[in-house]
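User: I need a structural model of 2,3-bisphosphoglycerate-dependent phosphoglycerate mutase from Ancylobacter crimeensis for a docking pre-check later this week. Nothing fancy, just the predicted C-alpha cells so I can convert them on my end. Input:
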Amino acid sequence: MSDRLLVLVRHGQSEWNLKNLFTGWRDPDLTPRGVDEARKAGKRLKAEGLSFDVCFTSDLKRAQDTLDLILEEMGEDNLPVICDQALNERDYGDLSGLNKDDARAKWGEEQVHIWRRSYDVPPPGGESLKDTVARALPYYVKEILPRVLRGERVLVAAHGNSLRALIMVLEKLTPDGIMKRELNTGAPVIYRLNADSTVESVLDLAD
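Assistant: Understood. Predicted C-alpha cells for 2,3-bisphosphoglycerate-dependent phosphoglycerate mutase:
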C-alpha cells in the first residue's frame, strides 16, 4: 500500500451548525458534540495505525480546535501545523450569521437553495463553491500535494466546502457530483495516492 497518505477531516459540529446558521468565515466555537466528534476522529485514526508528519488547517478556530483535539487523542501534539486562509470555509457573504429559515423568508426558498446548492452562483457578497475551489485548489497543488508525493503523511482539518474543493479533484467529480458529496462533521476520509497524484484507495470513516 502507498506511503503517500492524505487524510481530510471536516471540523466537529460548531455552535452555529447547531443553531442552523450560515457560518462561512465567522468564527464560532465547537459544541460539546463537536469536541466529542473531534476526539472520536483522533481515536479512529489511531486505531487505523496512522501517524502524521505535518498538518494543515484553516484560519478559523473550529478547524484548528478540531485538529488540536485529534492530535491530542493520537498523542501527536508536537507536529508542525500550517494555518492558511486558503483552507477557510466558503464565504457566505450577506448570509453569514443568518438562520437558514430566516434567509428563506427574506430571499425565498428557491433563491437560497440556488445559493447553497449551485456550483457557480454566489450569495450576495460571498463565494460560490467554484470560487472556493479557485482559492483552495491552487494551495493544495502548491503546498499540500508535493508533501504527500514526497511520502510525508499529511492531515488536513478544514471545512465542508474547502475540503470539497480538494475532493472534487481527488475523486474526479463533476460540479454536479461535488455538490451532492456529503462530508460528516468529524469523520476522517483517508486517501492513499499513486505517484502520479491519482487516488490508489479511499476509506471514509463516517458513521
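Before docking, keep this in mind: The mean pLDDT is 95.
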